[in-house]
Amino acid sequence: MNLQQLRYVVATAEHRTMTDAARSLYIAQPALSRAIRDLERELGMTLFARSGRGVVVTAQGRRVVKLAREALDAVREIESLSTHGHASEAELRIASIPSLEPGLAGRLLPAYTAEHPGVRIHIVRCDGRDGVVSAIRDQRADLGLTDLPVPTDLISHPLERQEIVLISPPGVDLPDPVPMRKLNGMRLVLPVPGSSRRREFDALFAKHGVAPVVATQLDERGNWLSTVRSGTASMLWYRGMAEQAARAGLVVRTLDPSVRRVIAIVHARRRLPAIAQEFLSVAESGSAA
After folding, report:
1. CA 152 to CA 140: how far, in whole Å?
2. How far apart are CA 268 and CA 14, in angstroms?
């Protein structure tokens, strides 16, 4: 068994379908299926069993997957030792949703780079929480910065509670803070139906007995501010976007009662590279969760 085969086994176990696993590995699905079959013949055991359109890990397979993850983690740890010896080559990949990037760039990154000036930081920009989760699962990022909750296959380290505010076009007649009942009938930009973010908004509205008017449904949050600037609707988002919104000429108001979400650093359930462990330590030392 070689490192490539180990990666194939772990990816298949994580994605539960050959198609998704192959996509994450950037290989053709038939090639991955053949590689898994060849490995099973080599080991003399069945690692995956068909289940509908996907696969499930067998009892023997679970043990192999566990050991494969440990082996890959050890390889990454060895590689990180090498990059510490050549600091200019070390790169830390952090997935983040757009509204949290200002805090990441303004507070966390300066604190980390002051202690580790030789490490390059690559921000993997994700449209939302689901994008951050996918980036971590597909190993396109070492760490993720997002709000909770996240699936249980990821580990989360809460950093702070961030307030959700109302961002409106200028000229909208509202008090500050805005009573939650004022959202009833208000035109809002919201995520598309069926998304995890939309379900959370809908639950918030139901809790307070309000029914906003859906002005626009967008998953690309980078377009939300431009929609509000057009004067057609307001939006609910994090206080971290307040400065950006104010620069765009928009009005930021607090909600009453206050609504807050936990912001966390998340990562896969595997040993982190040394540079990622160090970033997590720096972030947690200044957390306000």
Report:
1. 19
2. 11
**What distance in Å separates the CA atoms of residue 10 and residue 190, rounded to the nearest whole number?**
36
Cβ atoms 145, 94 nearer than 8 A: yes
Between CA 3 and CA 71 the distance in angstroms is 8
Q: Which token pair is 57? A: 């890990």
DSSP 137-203: HTTS-SEEEEESP--TTEEEEEEEEEEEEEEE-TT----SSEEGGGGTT-EEEEPPTTSHHHHHHHH
Label the pairing between strands 91-96 and 120-125. parallel
Distance, CA of 32 to CA of 52 (rounded, Å): 18
- Nearest-5° Cα angle at 58, 54 to 64: 110
Instruction: Round to whole Å and give the CA distance between 55 and 47.
Output: 10
Contacts of 82 (CB under 8 A, 6+ apart): none
pTM, rounded to two decimals: 0.63
User: pLDDT by residue for the chain (289 residues), tens digit each?
Assistant: 788 888 888 888 888 889 888 887 778 888 899 999 999 999 999 999 988 888 999 999 999 998 888 888 777 667 666 555 544 457 899 999 877 877 777 788 898 988 888 888 999 988 788 889 989 988 889 999 999 999 998 999 999 998 999 999 999 999 999 999 999 999 999 988 988 788 889 999 999 999 999 999 986 666 788 889 999 899 998 887 787 888 889 999 999 999 999 999 999 988 888 889 999 999 988 754 4
